[in-house]
């Protein structure tokens, strides 16, 4: 299966914070790649780099096998990348159609638009994929759940084949969540789209993803096929994360170690393995050296010294 997006040694810092620290990330065409990790792990920053909203400090991005310079969202869109943002990005005073074609610079090209024709095109797209969006609705009047559909429609209208979905179901209630998830899944399968899917909801990620990566303080600490990582998480942080999924049977208990201590600050993160202060397996080496992401077989990658010894 070919690689749609390859991110190599991505580094992104803000003053005092290394949000992405040498991240390597491959996304296969036609697959859904889940991204998990607690608040501040660097998920949104990584995806914003891919969508051209942040400049990387170092590293390379390849799209469809070719090196890509993504220095703006326009550049990302040209390469077929779309994004459903974690925070509502539509301009409230504009209609759906205007949002879809104008983005966040509405005054710039408004006079050029043949609004009627564009509305027809968007309506046709919405009908074809059963999105239920009326292009004439003003964005501020959109019910919750339709905002995400507009963002999807926007990406499809602009020809996206790779879609970044950053917490697309976190702001909606359970019934809308299920509908949205079904819609994302149907579109992905029908159109052969590639998704990068970020969520804090472990069951949502399990349901939609083919593969999952777990991030911790700017690093990917584990990555594997979904079934594999949910059944057999190896990194102590991933174990603690999956450990937090409630087990419906009260007579059963999970065997894995809980997380120690408080989440660390991203400002001046711990030396060596960034997880070591909270890890029950940490040794002297973990304090001083960074564990590389190692292939442990079956396309399962883990960054932990305790496992390679
Ligand atoms: N524009 C910015 N300026 C300074 N620091 C930033 C900026 N954007 C992100 N950061 C910092 O980078 C780190 C990673 O942030 P990011 O938003 O990627 O986390 P996340 O994994 O998406 O978390 P969440 O699950 O809360 O969305 C955080 O420490 C955050 O404070
Ligand atoms: Mg985020």
How would you describe this structure to a colleague?
The chain has 309 residues and is of the alpha/beta class. The chain folds into two domains: 3-209, 3-Layer(aba) Sandwich (Rossmann fold); 215-308, no CATH class. Helices cover 32% and strands 22% of the residues. It is built from twelve helices and twelve strands. Helix 3 (96-102) packs across helix 6 (146-157). It binds adenosine-5'-triphosphate and magnesium ion. Residues 14, 17, 19, 37, 39-45, 86, 266 line the site of adenosine-5'-triphosphate.
Supply the key terms.
alpha/beta, 2 domains, four-stranded antiparallel β-sheet, binds adenosine-5'-triphosphate, eight-stranded mixed β-sheet, binds magnesium ion
